């Protein structure tokens, strides 16, 4: 049956509202869930309610637009498709469908290391605006091979994710009895068999000496920066001091993120950390954010608080599940129209006009 836009989608967030119709309960729980007690998952959404947008009057909006230049790309809007693993959970065409939607809408796609299709298959369907999200592999030769493949396939930047080496299980996925279907493999990694983990010494920690044994360090980052000709962005930044150190180390830009609440549970909302990171790195250094963005007005608030653009995680999977490439393209169109409407009513004809003064703290209801 061909994909079609389901009835009842008037706003971008409707794709989330209707996700139970498009996704089997276990898959939905895995995608929607966070980690631990879901404290950060909830905080990401709640943070947007702390701000209200101030309407402005009588400004000429007739030449307004949401174009920007980011990482050397000319983009029509400040939305990127966040890296998400296992697209096959949402749709049989998985990331190939997402890539088609990105191409059709001029959107930058950030392809995950853990996609259901290979990075080469995704590149063949994507437009020129494509970045590759990297998880450092235990074996540097495997990481180097991934880098060479991403370079050869025309990805224009590497986005190194650093906040998810350790992930507590998602409570909602556990309760729903979700297990990863066998067909959901990480297609990029099948050629890199993992070395068997050595047994833990008596008394050793399953975290420190176990899962964190090969977690990336500053040495690995320095090595990575020397190992690719592509600009390297860092995803998972929260602390202003880390932001400054990463800027000094020579990374191209930052993504303020907590992995959509799937990393350290109890960490603050991405939106709450954004102003501190922006203040630390200065006005002109590229800073993106994600976590909880569900509408054009959410995006507007993130831009006002210091982001140059925002990444869309779960909504893209819900739209993919609902209507494949068509759904993701429709989602991006809705998000863009919502942002334009918000900008126009807030008196901001361009993204540069969106400033902290565009917002006011929302009074408690
Ligand atoms: C199902 C799922 C899979 C994800 N897989 C990855 C991944 O492979 N790499 C990565 O850097 N981030 C991954 N993320 C995090 C997203 O890139 C993004 O940070 C997060 O979803 C943003 O929050 P939002 O879902 O509220 O928009 C994943 C998120 C979800 C929900």
List the helices and strands and how they pair.
Blueprint: H1 14-17, H2 19-22, H3 25-32, H4 39-49, E1 51-53, E2 68-70, E3 73-75, E4 79-81, H5 94-105, E5 108-111, H6 119-125, E6 130-134, H7 140-152, E7 158-161, H8 171-175, H9 206-210, H10 218-227, E8 232-237, H11 240-249, E9 253-256, H12 270-281, E10 287-290, H13 296-304, E11 309-312, H14 314-345, E12 359-361
Parallel strand pairs: 4-5, 4-11, 5-6, 6-7, 7-8, 8-9, 9-10, 10-11
Antiparallel strand pairs: 1-12, 2-3
The structure holds flavin mononucleotide (FMN).
The site of flavin mononucleotide has 23 residues, from strand 11.
Describe, in plain words, how this protein is organized in 3D.
The protein is α/β, with parallel strands linked by helices and 365 residues long. The protein has a single domain (14-56, 64-180, 214-348), classed as Alpha-Beta Barrel (TIM Barrel). The protein is 39% helix and 13% strand. The chain has helices at 14-17, 19-22, 25-32, 39-49, 94-105, 119-125, 140-152, 171-175, 206-210, 218-227, 240-249, 270-281, 296-304, 314-345, and strands spanning 51-53, 68-70, 73-75, 79-81, 108-111, 130-134, 158-161, 232-237, 253-256, 287-290, 309-312, 359-361. The strands form 3 sheets. The chain has an 8-stranded parallel barrel, surrounded by 7 helices. The protein has a two-stranded antiparallel sheet with strand order 1-12. Helix 12 (270-281) links the parallel strand 9 (253-256) and strand 10. Helix 11 (240-249) packs across helix 12. The longest helix has 32 residues, at 314-345. It is globular, with a radius of gyration of 20 Å. The model has no long low-confidence stretch (mean pLDDT 96). Bound molecules: flavin mononucleotide. Residues 31, 44, 82-85, 112, 114, 133, 161, 235, 257, 259-260, 262, 290-293, 311-314 line the site of flavin mononucleotide.
């Amino acid at each position: 049956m061909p994909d079609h836009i389901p009835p009842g989608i008037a706003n971008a967030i409707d794709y989330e509202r209707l996700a139970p119709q498009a996704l089997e309960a276990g898959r939905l729980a895995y995608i929607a869930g966070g980690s631990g007690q879901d404290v950060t998952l909830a905080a990401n959404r709640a943070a947007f309610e702390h701000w209200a947008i101030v309407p402005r009057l009588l400004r000429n909006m007739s030449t307004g637009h949401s174009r920007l230049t980011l990482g050397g790309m000319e983009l029509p809007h400040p939305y990127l498709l966040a890296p998400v693993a296992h697209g096959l959970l949402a749709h049989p065409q998985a990331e190939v469908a997402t890539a088609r939607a990105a191409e059709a809408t001029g959107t930058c796609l950030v392809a995950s290391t853990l996609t259901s299709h290979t990075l080469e298959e995704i590149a063949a369907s994507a437009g020129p605006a494509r970045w590759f999200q990297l998880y450092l592999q235990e074996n540097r030769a495997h990481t180097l091979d991934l880098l060479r493949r991403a370079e050869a396939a025309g990805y224009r930047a590497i986005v190194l994710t650093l906040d998810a080496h350790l992930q507590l299980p998602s409570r909602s996925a556990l309760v729903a009895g979700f297990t990863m279907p066998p067909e959901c493999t990480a297609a990029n990694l099948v050629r890199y068999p993992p070395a068997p983990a050595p047994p833990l010494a008596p008394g050793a920690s399953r975290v420190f000496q176990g899962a964190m044994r090969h977690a990336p360090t500053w040495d690995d980052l320095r090595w990575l920066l020397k190992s690719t000709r592509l600009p390297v962005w860092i995803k998972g930044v929260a602390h202003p001091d880390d932001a400054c150190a990463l800027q000094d180390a020579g990374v191209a830009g930052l993504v303020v993120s907590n992995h959509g609440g799937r990393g350290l549970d109890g960490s603050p909302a991405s939106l709450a950390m954004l102003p501190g990171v922006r203040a630390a790195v200065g006005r002109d250094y590229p800073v993106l954010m994600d976590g909880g963005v569900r509408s054009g007005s959410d995006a507007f608030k993130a831009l006002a608080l210091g982001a140059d653009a925002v990444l869309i995680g779960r909504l893209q999977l819900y739209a993919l599940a609902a209507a494949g490439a068509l759904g993701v393209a429709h989602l991006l169109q809705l998000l863009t129209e919502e942002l334009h409407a918000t900008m126009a009513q807030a008196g901001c004809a361009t993204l540069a006009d969106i400033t902290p003064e565009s917002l006011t703290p929302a009074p408690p209801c």
